[in-house]
UniProtKB/TrEMBL annotation:
Record's protein name: BLOC-1 related complex subunit 8
Lineage of the species this protein comes from: Eukaryota, Metazoa, Chordata, Craniata, Vertebrata
Major site of localization recorded for this protein: membrane
Organism of derivation: Equus asinus
PANTHER family: BLOC-1-RELATED COMPLEX SUBUNIT 8, MEF2B PROTEIN
Localization terms from the record: Lysosome membrane
GO cellular component: BORC complex; lysosomal membrane
Key words, A-Z: Lysosome, Membrane
């Protein structure tokens, strides 16, 4: 009866050692680096595409920002030039008034 028990203990010992060896091999640093390399190899193309998309969106955004800033500057310049528009308006009214006086004077001489 002792022999089957010894065989069982022997098999258990061998099985435990084999399991421990497999565990050590599966968690060896070179295996971890291989898994990391595989992960990077699979993930890198997608990440590169995301980066390219983000750069393209940034360029488009910069273009839109420039356009808005330019439009704001143009509006501000228009507001600042309102003084000149009022001056031109006054000169035009004065010119029309002088023309009307000249027309009235020439009609009165006829």
């Amino acid at each position: 009866m002792e022999e089957p028990e010894m065989q069982l203990k022997g098999k258990k010992g061998v099985t435990d050692k084999f399991t421990e060896s497999i565990y050590v091999l599966a968690n060896e640093p070179s295996v971890a680096l291989y898994r990391l390399q595989e992960h990077v190899r699979r993930s890198l193309p997608e990440l590169a595409q995301h980066k390219a998309d983000m750069q393209r969106w940034e360029e488009q955004s910069q273009g839109a920002i420039y356009t808005v800033e330019y439009a704001c500057s143009a509006v501000k310049n228009l507001v600042d030039s309102s003084v000149y528009f009022r001056s031109v308006e006054g000169l035009l009214k004065q010119a029309i008034s002088i023309r009307d006086h000249m027309n009235a004077a020439t009609q009165g001489h006829r």
